[in-house]
What does this fold into?
Amino acid sequence: MEAGKDQNGEGFKVKEPVVILGAGLTGLSTAYHLKRDYQIFEKEDEAGGLCRSHIVNGFSFDYTGHLLFLKDPGIKKLVFDLLGNNIKCHSRKSWVYLKDQLIPFPFQANFGLLPASIAKECLGDFIFARGYNKNKDANNFSSWLNSRFGKGLTKYFLRPYNEKMWRVPLSRITLDWVEKFIPQPELDDVVEGVLGKKKDKYGYNAEFWYPEKGGIFSLPRALKNRVKNLHLNEEAVEISLKKKTVRFRSKKEISYSNIVSTMPLPELIKIIKDIPAEIKTKSKGLSCCSVFNINLGLNIQLDPNIHWIYFPEKKYPFYRYGVISNFSGNAAPAGKSSIYIEISYSSGKKINKKHVLEDTIKRLIELKVISDKNDINTIKTLDIKYAYVIYNSARKNYLRDILEYLEKQGIYSRGRYGSFDYSSMNDALIAGTDIAEKLNAE
Ligand SMILES: Cc1cc2nc3c(=O)[nH]c(=O)nc-3n(C[C@H](O)[C@H](O)[C@H](O)COP(=O)(O)OP(=O)(O)OC[C@H]3O[C@@H](n4cnc5c(N)ncnc54)[C@H](O)[C@@H]3O)c2cc1C
It folds into this structure.
């Protein structure tokens, strides 16, 4: 606290500002809702975090697909207020590519379209799982898949797809996220699917919203315009709990009353110089997979019936590709398309990006998405080090201890990588609202 004098010349204490680290959606939402003095610092030269967009040669690219699922009425109102007319609702058109054919997503309700012998195997195993095996031995993601969906669905789609995305053995993944993210159809739905009734309304992403112009960055940009005290190119490199200060790479130093940190939690722990050894050790098991994101601007117009396609088979290096120009006509020049391709890899491990890019293009030609390399107008690659938080035993056992310790020090670690969870833009806006309300009440 700083000492000061009020208008009557009486002494009083001025509270240090709340220091917000990171100007992604969580940091911006915190700033927007805070009624206390704050300063917000972002290490990059632009706000928005993972919700930035890149416009190259008239093609708009996000950090892979960034679709809005506006489940919370308060957040829906905020987003509509921020984006005005610049937003449109879409009904999901997504598919699974398996055995050389497209199966509507979710696979677990539409696998009847596969060759009869595979469909029969999947249905039989599903009935067995639901009838005899429900929740048996399900103490990790691997056994949960078998117990909820049966061996067939797990073998053909769920296991290979999830292994490709998470890059860790599925038996090391806990179950605290699955209910929210993995659609679990009832037996009736599955039987109807096998009999040919297309099911497409399952899951959290059956409908989504997307800006008409400017990519997903339109959202953080609108929010950024409503906050003050934003400092770009300022990377926090050291926090002292004792002195209650943050030091930046620029050598600037600031005192804080509280910190709202939205930087990845393991990185936050690393820069706190007086962090207890026990907390440091506990944070070491927190882990994420990374995503190498290849974005292509194409000279051709792609099928409008595709928003995105999942690829479980090993021969394809990517686990998904999506067509942004089918969410927004402005994402590519007329008659052209903008696509994103997602390749996951273990965090901390290197991948040969040149090789992956070449293999990806080869596979796109094989899949007849493009006829040859001449269809590619623009390439923009992005690397996402912290992409999907892995729900492992370290997270289950220690995350709460770490967050509670930090809160006792006045540091609130929030957002997708701050609170280390599998959360959405909607959740990031809520996280900012909630922490601002808490701090406003102090
Ligand atoms: C591949 C992928 C696809 C996704 N798709 C969707 C989707 O379709 N729909 C959806 O709702 N959500 C999606 N998400 C999730 C969404 O991106 C996040 O929920 C949201 O962007 C999180 O915002 P945040 O502010 O918490 O984090 P971030 O956006 O990561 O912001 C954190 C900020 O902190 C900054 N920072 C880091 N270290 C420092 C430091 N030392 N000093 C200062 N600043 C620092 C970073 O530069 C960054 O700007 C996706 C995420 C990924 C990875």
Remarks:
- Residues 141-166 form the longest helix (26 residues).
- Residues 107-194 form a domain with the protoporphyrinogen ix oxidase, domain 3 fold (CATH 1.10.3110).
- Residues 21-27, 41-44, 49-51, 63-69, 235-236, 262-263, 267, 291, 384, 387, 415-417, 423-426, 428 surround flavin-adenine dinucleotide (CB under 6 Å).
- The longest strand covers residues 376-389.
